[in-house]
Amino acid sequence: AQSVSQHNHHVILSEAASLELGCNYSYGGTVNLFWYVQYPGQHLQLLLKYFSGDPLVKGIKGFEAEFIKSKFSFNLRKPSVQWSDTAEYFCAVKADFSGGYNKLIFGAGTRLAVHP
Amino acid sequence: GAVVSQHPSWVICKSGTSVKIECRSLDFQATTMFWYRQFPKQSLMLMATSNEGSKATYEQGVEKDKFLINHASLTLSTLTVTSAHPEDSSFYICSARDSRGAYNEQFFGPGTRLTVL
């Protein structure tokens, strides 16, 4: 079955530290990949997405992610985090199923806390 | 980006009653909307895919008679939790697919927290 794994459930960093959140998926077909962020008390927002082309994608707020097809990975990175990056981060894969049906499959999420 | 609203944002009800949650796309038409359930400290689990004018497609293990979905217009989908029980308490999130763009991006609502006493 298709699945998305996020390796870190909780990450605690100091401001200005670098961030990398791991995401691996299991699906053999063509995938579209996403990272969403959920700030405390707010709804899910799209950080970035990969559909095709350059495997290094840049998103909002200085985030980027790299799609490595051979590793089935789509890790999220940011060189220097800020206190305002405290949030929960979800990796998601859009997989196609028979009959033209597709759906987003989410990872379990990573809760990031950034200390000033 | 496009805006999706949900109403109510939170609801408390007695066991055995039914609760209706609305999901609206405010500035775009959505032929497809999705309903998710999120348990504390867990990920979003897709419950069903709602297509305007047709029956919803439910994920395996989701009771269609318990979670009634209606998508009668291009901007509104409703989820009715029938005969709610405490185990139905959860955070319900809808999303709507914007088919105008090249990537059919999904936009998420703020969620509805349901507590069944």
The low-pLDDT segments of chain B are none
Number of helices of chain A: 0
Biggest interface, chains and residue tallies: A-B, 19 and 20 residues
Spatial separation of the terminal alpha carbons of chain A: 41 Å
Could you explain the architecture of this structure?
- The complex is a heterodimer of chains A (116) and B (117).
- With 116 residues, chain A is mainly β.
- Chain A is built from no helices and twelve strands.
- In chain A, the strands form three sheets. In chain A, strands 2, 5, 6, 10, 11 and 12 form a six-stranded mixed β-sheet that branches. In chain A, strands 3-9-8-7 form a four-stranded antiparallel β-sheet, with no helix packed on it. In chain A, strands 1-4 form a two-stranded antiparallel ribbon.
- Chain B is mainly β and 117 residues long.
- Chains A and B meet through strand 6 and strand 11 of A and strand 5 of B.
How are the SSEs placed, and which strands pair?
The complex is a heterodimer of chains A (116) and B (117).
Chain A: E1 3-6, E2 10-14, E3 19-21, E4 23-26, E5 31-38, E6 45-50, E7 56-58, E8 64-68, E9 73-78, E10 87-97, E11 101-106, E12 110-115
Parallel strand pairs in A: 2-12
Antiparallel strand pairs in A: 1-4, 3-9, 5-6, 5-10, 7-8, 8-9, 10-11, 10-12
Chain B: E1 4-7, E2 10-13, E3 19-25, E4 32-38, E5 44-51, E6 57-58, E7 67-73, E8 76-81, E9 90-97, E10 106-108, E11 112-116
Parallel strand pairs in B: 2-11
Antiparallel strand pairs in B: 1-3, 3-8, 4-5, 4-9, 5-6, 7-8, 9-10, 9-11
